[in-house]
Fold this sequence. Notes:
Pfam families (chains A, B): LacI, Peripla_BP_1
Domain HTH cro/C1-type (chains A, B): 5-46
Structural class of chain A: alpha/beta
Organism (chains A, B): Planococcus shixiaomingii
Oligomer: homodimer
Keywords (chains A, B): DNA-binding, Transcription, Transcription regulation
Strand order of the largest sheet of chain A: 2-1-3-4-5-11
Radius of gyration of chain A: 26 Å
Distance between the termini of chain A: 66 Å
Protein name (chains A, B): LacI family DNA-binding transcriptional regulator
Largest sheet of chain A: 6 strands, parallel
Amino acid sequence: MANIQQVAKQAGVSVATVSRVLNGQNKVALKTKQKVEEAIKDLNYEPSMLGRNLRNSESRIVLILIPAISNPFYFEIIKGIENMALSQNYSILLCETDSKPEKEDIYFDLVRKKMADGIISMDPAVNVETLKELAGKYAIIQCSEYGGDIGIPYVTIDNEEASYRAVKHLIQIGHRKIALMNTDEKFLYARERKSGYQRALAEYGIPVIEDYMLYTQHLGFEQGQQAMKKILALPDRPTAVFAVSDLLAIGALKEINAAGLHVPNDMAVVGFDKIDFSNMTNPTLTTIAQPMYKMGTVAAGMLIDLIRGEQVDSVILEHELIIRESTSG
Amino acid sequence: MANIQQVAKQAGVSVATVSRVLNGQNKVALKTKQKVEEAIKDLNYEPSMLGRNLRNSESRIVLILIPAISNPFYFEIIKGIENMALSQNYSILLCETDSKPEKEDIYFDLVRKKMADGIISMDPAVNVETLKELAGKYAIIQCSEYGGDIGIPYVTIDNEEASYRAVKHLIQIGHRKIALMNTDEKFLYARERKSGYQRALAEYGIPVIEDYMLYTQHLGFEQGQQAMKKILALPDRPTAVFAVSDLLAIGALKEINAAGLHVPNDMAVVGFDKIDFSNMTNPTLTTIAQPMYKMGTVAAGMLIDLIRGEQVDSVILEHELIIRESTSG
DNA sequence: CTGAAAGCGCTAACAG
DNA sequence: CTGTTAGCGCTTTCAG
């Protein structure tokens, strides 16, 4: 566990010189440089980031806040963030908040205590007030989920438009009785997706039926099953359902199946997110693809700019409708 | 961004005293303590972990090495690790290695450079040599996947026995033609699970048929489909298959379904890991449950002991066979 | 091109 | 019970 002093001594130079060859910015005579490098090798020296970070008042760590690590929706985004971060010599701390303020706070403390240089928040249930307050002092980006224009830069897709296209697709293949499996409207994206759903119906002169709009507490498989049960029990049963998450849609699929009905003949299904499993179901799931990976790299890039003190603007990325078996017999 | 000096000045005490109330170990007069706490509040002071960590030569960060973040197998383990780590004031850095030495090395560097205090490795493809070398200088635990008794403490289950029980279950419900969907035998657990498979067959006097043992490169859904295709094409077709991962088994399920066959009547299926999705398939999947969460807490506990310089021993945890629809008509 | 020295923010002897 | 002081390991002026 050699330190920079010992290297300096061994090489017969000052610590400043060792530091210079370590960072490669300043000019060092070739001969001196070689001496130092030899000493480094001899002593098996590894520079300590603890020392460097304290000196530079940075940690080179960024936090990613997600509600649950098991949610497949985040995988590609995280990969994007990670790759961008690594390329700029940042490491990422993946923080599962369980959407609980207490856990959130543990991680917020990390940035308050300088153990993290910034935060990418993907938790829709994050405490917006705390976030706003933190954003005043620290670098923060909202990714995918965001609380609206609250002065914190975000990267996301146009949820209203995506939802509109999904529903329009269902209408165009002949459906007029279309259910919406949405989540709690306290989330902005839930409101936006509902709005897109209504716009599509309106455009084709289809009335909005309250009973066709379901709300689930979470975006999980079980919630999808339960909601589908309710839909199937409706007196004037819909012939299609648009779920605002793939997991919801997959739960619906299973329930339709269990009821002895056929997808898409008896009930067409559209999901949202294009998670890996959406391709493993039977039938495969029509869904909205978000440019996850890119969203991650963009968010990470924005955050690093913010850390550097640069000005950053919010970004809206493109999405795509992926038509698969659950809407095409 | 006040520092400890300013707090000391404001409170009219020395930095040592501030440090004492911060850490609460040493006795400080109540009155002094109150003065300090007031100053802390006044200045909105947050102690910097950068300073503290450098002084204490620790980072209070532990690394978790996993091949892919999207593998549901690891979710509960990670949760276990995280909760135990948080309770001891450690944060976890989740590192996706993609089973690539280059990426591994980026993360190994973090412990070499003192940005991490230890590693929990769950990557079966990890470079055992590098790991052994690192284990000489740093705290390292192997969790779930391990390279055998190479002197690095591990926590795992008895893979041979688990496999044995799974196959025995299939035999007991009447199967004698049982395929094994295994992965590359370079992995210890693959060899162990094969061995359990063979022991069960031997116990019932069933000959081992080479053609019934398949090997896939990865433990994914597609590999399960492909392997199942081969099994279905076998001249003397098996009536049951034991797959060493749920994802493999789920792929098999889909393929059997696509072939118009029925599970479990035409083909019984057993998986391994009890991932969440194993309960969402149709039919639900019989599988081996590992005590994931506990495995995580135990691994984290061991690692922290190791960091503290204590002696730790390897642990073998219990497993359980979960019988569901894919083996019970 | 190189060295001396200050200091990032904190903790822990040591002395009182 | 409290203050003084010496670093933890590194980077960066400032001189030379």
